[in-house]
Amino acid sequence: MAIISSAFGGVTLTGSDARKFQDQVTYGRPKSAAIESVKRGVEMAKEYKHTGYVQLKTKPKK
Asked: Which of 24, 26, 35, 43 sits between 20 and 30 A of 13, alpha carbons compared?
């Protein structure tokens, strides 16, 4: 088994590494931070589709 990707600069996984990666993608559970990030992204995409832009508010560095 081999997984080859040019989007990440030519990453190639073969053998057991490729199997572990495929199993993680198929059976892995996302962390709660990833789930929240996706929710925020979906809301931003809806806002962009509706208004044509998205406003991001950031906190200043202390």
From this structure: 35
